[in-house]
Amino acid sequence: MTTTTLEYHPENHLSASPAHGLPGTNFLYSSPLSYVWSSAILLADRLATGEVDVKGKRIVELGCGLALPGIVAAQMGAEQVVLTDYDNPTMLADTSQAVQQALSPQLQQRVQVVGHTWGTSVGPVLEACPSPDLILVADCVWERELHRALIQSLLAILRTAPSCVVHFAAGFHTGRSAVAAFLRHALASGLAPVDMAEWQEKSVTGQTKRWDWTLSGSKGLVKEERQEERNRWTLYGTLALQLESKL
């Protein structure tokens, strides 16, 4: 039995990764440049196991960092993967280096790294990938001040590809309230869950529980656990364009 192997800095986590691997497959992802967060690992797991089918599809990852989900998407047969992060040469160089280290030259031809600052024109992203099938978002909502800008970018892309689905994962390392606030703003802006029942939290030991959507209500009150406990959980679900944006 092979496993998903990740090299990371354990002092950055108070508990182990939720990745458990898949018999018959092996993904080695190693980087000394930055951290790989649990939400990226969880989302990459879903791609690697086929729970999210990316074969032959066009993928955009926003706020990709070291782009573990996007890289796994390329490994799993995506037709095209566009990796985007803050339009900074150093950050984009880190992403490009991760792609070069993780993928064969043949697979690298399917991947493009594009700078995109949330809330600005998505023109360069759409030029690289005119009609995406999936958008990947992993651990991008910890900074509340950037929620509006991220939603603007999501809406701008989705309006050009209304059938596109956003696969969303987020940890609670800055609190459940930050995630709930993002989803509250998303709902008000015209993004809605594809299926509320599929939104689940998963612990590093494999436990699951449904996301409490009342936390994203207009008066949702979030009771925060201790830091160590909330670091153990990651949320996953899908969003799609449902209503006319109010932005």
Mean pLDDT score: 84
CATH class: Alpha Beta
Number of domains: 1
> From the structure provided, what is the oligomeric state, counting identical versus distinct chains?
single chain
Major β-sheet annotation: 9 strands, mixed
What does this structure look like?
Keywords: Methyltransferase, Transferase. GO terms for molecular function: S-adenosylmethionine-dependent methyltransferase activity. One of its GO terms (cellular component) is cytoplasm. By secondary structure, the chain is α/β, with parallel strands linked by helices. It has a single domain (39-241), classed as Vaccinia Virus protein VP39 (Rossmann fold, 3-Layer(aba) Sandwich), CATH 3.40.50. Helices cover 30% and strands 21% of the residues. Strands 3, 4, 5, 6, 7, 8, 9, 10 and 11 form a nine-stranded mixed β-sheet that branches. The protein has a two-stranded parallel ribbon with strand order 1-2. α2 (68-75) links the parallel β3 (58-62) and β4. The longest helix has 14 residues, at 89-102.
Topology (elements, then pairings):
Blueprint: E1 5-7, E2 28-30, H1 38-48, E3 58-62, H2 68-75, E4 80-85, H3 89-102, H4 105-108, E5 111-115, H5 123-128, E6 134-138, H6 147-160, E7 165-171, H7 176-189, E8 191-193, E9 200-203, E10 208-210, H8 227-230, E11 233-241
In short:
By secondary structure, the chain is α/β, with parallel strands linked by helices.
Features:
alpha/beta, Rossmann fold, two-stranded parallel sheet, 8 helices, disordered N terminus, transferase, methyltransferase, Nicotinamide n-methyltransferase, S-adenosylmethionine-dependent methyltransferase activity, SAM-dependent_MTases_sf
